[in-house]
Amino acid sequence: MIDRAGIMRLIPHAGEMCLLDAVLAWDARWIRCATESHRAAHNPLRRDGRLGILCGVEYAAQAMAVHGALAGVIKGRAAVGYLASVRALNCHVDRLEEVAGTLQVTAERLYGDGDRAIYSFALAHGDIALLEGRAAVVTGRDAV
Predict the structure, then answer these.
(1) What angle do CA 52, 60, 22 make, to 5 degrees?
(2) Is the pLDDT assigned to residue 115 strictly greater than 90?
(3) How many structural domains is the chain composed of?
(4) How confident is the model at residue 75, as a pLDDT?
């Protein structure tokens, strides 16, 4: 398991903008993370006390960044990256701050060639699906 401090050493997000609390498991293809930051009143993505479900895409993007660093796709600290597109996005709730307890954030690398990758991702609370989709990610020199 990797804690929040370990995650911050891997991705460019610092302080409260690091939304993930722990990496629970990972391998060369996928990652599973946990967090309770969606309940924090000081979450930087909240607006008027609310955290819309679309903010879950940022949680997934951070899981993808951590995975890229851990799987050796990105050497050392994760380079700046961008979501080039998000597809097949399914939202099953309106807001995240209303979800009690720990969120599980998973991402699976479906395809990748160096600085480009396609991931599927999901956010869940226990067996309850909250959000899922696919994302194209560009990092490193291609992200400029």
Answers:
(1) 105
(2) no
(3) 1
(4) 52
Q: What is the mean pLDDT of residues 86-101?
A: 97
For the chain, helix (H) and strand (E) counts, in that order, are 2, 7
> Residue 73: its pLDDT value, please?
58
Q: Which domain holds residue 68?
A: 2-143
Q: Model confidence over 40-72: pLDDT tens digits?
A: 999 999 999 999 999 999 999 999 999 999 987
What is the per-residue pLDDT for 33? Answer: 98
**CA dist., res. 53 & res. 9, Å (int):** 27
Q: Which long-range contacts (CB under 8 A, 24 or more apart) does 15-23 make?
A: 16/40, 16/42, 16/43, 16/44, 17/44, 18/62, 19/43, 19/45, 19/58, 19/59, 19/62, 20/59, 20/62, 20/63, 20/66, 20/105, 23/66, 23/70
Placement of tokens 């460019």 in the chain: 12
Looking up residue 26, the CATH number of its domain turns out to be 3.10.129.10
Q: How far apart are CA 67 and CA 46, in angstroms?
A: 25
**Distance (Å, rounded) from C-alpha 129 to C-alpha 111?**
23
Q: 60: exposed, middle or buried (C-beta count within 10 Å: 0-12, 13-18, 19+)?
A: buried
